[in-house]
Structures are given as C-alpha cells and as structure tokens.
Design goal:
Elements: E1 4-6, E2 15-18, E3 21-23, E4 41-43, H1 49-52, H2 55-62, E5 65-69, H3 79-82, E6 98-100, E7 105-106, E8 109-113, E9 122-126, E10 131-135, H4 154-164, E11 171-174, H5 185-199
Parallel strand pairs: 3-4, 4-5, 5-6, 10-11
Antiparallel strand pairs: 1-2, 2-3, 7-8, 8-9, 9-10
Helix pairs in contact: 4-5
C-alpha cells in the first residue's frame, strides 16, 4: 500500500498516511483535512511533542483511535516527558485507545519496540513493501535520535538499531528529514555504524 508523506513544517515531525492509518500527529490539522474521512487510526512512534502537538485536534477531526506504546503513555500528559515545555505548550492530554507492544500487528504493519530515543519508541515495518517507518530511531545518512532527553538511553538505542539492521529495507520513512524510497538499507547500516563509533 502506498505511503503518503505529510512533511512537518519547522519543528513539527513528519506524518505518514498508509490506508486508514496516520502515523504521528505533529503536523497542522489543515494538512490532513483531505484525509479526514480516511483516517481511522493514529499510531504514535513516541510521545514527544513534535510528534503529538496536534493529536487532540486531529482526533477530534477524524474520530480516529490512538495507539502508543505503554512506556510512552505518560508523555501524552506530562510536560517533562513530552518536552512540550520546550515549546511553551502543554501536552495533548489525550488518553490512548490502544496500548502497543512489540510484535503487535496493525494491518500490514509490524510494531517493533525500539527504546533509546524514548522508553516507548517504536518503528513500524511493512515486510511486503520493504518499508520501515522509523520515527526518531533512525534518520537518513547514518544519523539517529537524541538520547539525552528523559527516558533516553544510548545503549538501548544501539541495541534497537542492531535489531533493525537485519531487516530487508528499501524505503525509510523517518520522523524528520525526507524519506528515502530506494536503497534505504545502506542508511540503516550507516546508523548502526555511527552508533558503534559514538558509543562503542
């Protein structure tokens, strides 16, 4: 199924639409208006404010159910865990409808728990499409999400990327920067190598 990229503006994270699923909710609701009848599920890759800033408005607009990993549910109501205080804002204060765990499947998407950037970070993998929605775990060019925020862990991030590295990945759809639609495996392996260089 095709992946629709909704680019974030400024500090906002990217969102993606796959069928009835919206991944992350930092973008302005007006960017999603034409998909409002289509979106039935909102999956959050983690709870940071740049990925959840407009969750309440988007949920109200679409009526979609919200999915997040258990370890990041607190970020939906905590200024510290969500980092919303950095933006002079409050967290979305939305209760999730579904708690995600490693190995869950939502349609064709496999949930992979990838702690490191946050305790409850996840990636989503579509094996048939060879696509990895990587949140802030893996970025193009060998980069990766910060680990110095509350709940971050460099050792856990390294272990998470080591777990992702064997996947057959052609497309990489990160939380920030442009998606990579061809040959994305090299970016995943570059991130693995970067983490080994930085953290041993």
């Amino acid at each position: 199924m095709p992946i629709q990229w909704i680019p974030g503006s400024g500090w906002q994270a990217n969102s993606y639409i796959i069928g009835e699923v919206l991944i992350d909710a930092g973008v302005l609701p007006m960017a999603l208006e034409r998909f409002s009848d289509q979106i039935k599920r909102i999956i959050l890759t983690h709870g940071h404010f740049d990925h959840t800033a407009h969750l309440a408005e988007i949920q109200a607009m679409t009526g979609a159910e919200v999915y997040i990993h258990e370890e990041d549910t607190i970020a939906l109501r905590s200024e510290v865990e969500s980092l919303s205080f950095n933006f002079g804002a409050r967290p979305p204060m939305v209760l999730p409808d579904h708690i995600l765990a490693d190995g869950d499947r939502i349609g064709d998407l496999l949930v992979i728990h990838t702690p490191g950037h946050t305790r409850g970070s996840i990636c989503l993998y579509d094996e048939a499409e060879r696509a990895l929605i990587s949140g802030d775990t893996v970025f193009p060019g060998g980069s990766f999400g910060r680990t110095d925020f509350p709940g971050g862990s460099a050792s856990e991030l390294r272990a998470s990327v080591d777990r992702l590295a064997p996947l057959d990945v052609e497309g990489l759809y990160p939380g920030h920067e442009r998606p990579v639609t061809e040959g994305a495996k090299r970016h995943l392996l570059a991130t693995q190598q970067s983490l080994r260089s930085y953290y041993g």
